[in-house]
Amino acid sequence: MPKQELDSEELFNLALSIVGLVLRDGPMQVKELSEHFGFSEKTIVKAVKTIANSEDIGRFETHFYVDEELLDEGEVDFSAGRSALSEPPVLSKRQTTSLAAGLDFLAALPQFSQNSALAQVREIIGSGTEPITDLGLNEDQQRLEPLRSAILNKQQIVAQYVNQLGQKSSRAIDPLRIDFIGRRHYLRGWCHLKQELRSFRLDRIIDIEVTDQEITKQGSSATIPEEVFGALSTELTVEITASSEASEIFWNFPSFDLKKGANGSTTGKIQVGNLQALGRHVSRYGGEVVVLAPQSAREAVSEFAKLAMTGYDGPGDED
Fold first, then answer.
1. Domain annotation covers residue 132
2. Across 58-68, average pLDDT
3. What CATH number should be reported for the domain holding residue 163?
4. Domain span at 76
5. Which CATH number covers residue 70?
6. Distance between CA 260 and CA 268 in Å, rounded?
7. Range 210-244 burial, b when 16+ CB lie within 10 A, else e
């Protein structure tokens, strides 16, 4: 459903966006603008009237005129007022600082480190020398840089990987793609140890070595499914509830129908391809996650907990 209520700043920003679009493309229907910006038609009309009523307080000049008759018929059209905005509007210090901080953040990301256009914009607004926000690379970003290079150059990597049970192993991997799912980065690649396509959470990779070996034919010909955790059509829908401390479990699976409880807990549904893997995830949270349905999932988690207590050492999938 289109968003209905906006505060004054959001409404004014929407109004400016409408003005720019209409002045560039010509008159537009209110319905068309509603679909474009994702707000209700009532909100679009309110934003249009907001900009129509704005003026340069110092010179008492109206910036834009709105064709009221057309607006009543569901169409938006503007004509420039006396001020005509012959010069770009001056940003406030707060706006400039916010913009500079955002650009500093982009410049700190590896993929933008050599971006000349970004450097030029930062120089224009005075953010090209001493960053307002000095962001060092976090651990994920430190891992991303060699992985991107290996993927582009089609080189094998050797990774020291720790699975969700804390078991460490050395993996030779043909890196194929990096995905960002549920607030986490995943490396998709052909695992030489398992001889199949696997997903590796970047925060579980503790060391990466890019080798001079080319990726194998198996790796280069592997078809990567869109879903990190397998095809959704073959997965089981499981309903769980998690305390606020354990709600991150929803980040590890495709999830939907999430609802917040009054006590901060989250109830929702996840897609699971392997019930044994679900048992490992749920057990990590020591009772903070409860499986509600179906019964087969409840039984699988209970069975896993029993086996874990007896020292069972089962096979460890990455995710």
1. no
2. 58
3. 2.30.30
4. 8-80
5. 1.10.10
6. 9
7. eeeeebeeebeebeeeebbbbeeeebeebebbbbe
Rg (CA), the chain: 27
The whole-number pLDDT of residue 124 equals: 74
Q: Does the structure show a pLDDT above 80 at 263?
A: yes
pLDDT one-digit tens code per residue, 185-238: 888 899 999 888 888 888 888 889 999 999 999 988 888 775 544 444 456 899
Q: What is the DSSP letter of 203?
A: G
174 forms beta bridges with 190
CATH assignment of the domain containing 251: 3.30.70
Instruction: Give the per-residue pLDDT at 63.
Output: 56
Q: Which residues contact 105 (CB under 8 A, 6 or more apart)?
A: 133, 135
Do residues 228 and 319 touch, judged by C-beta distance below 8 A?
A: yes
d(CA 109, CA 124): 20
Residue type for 311, please? G
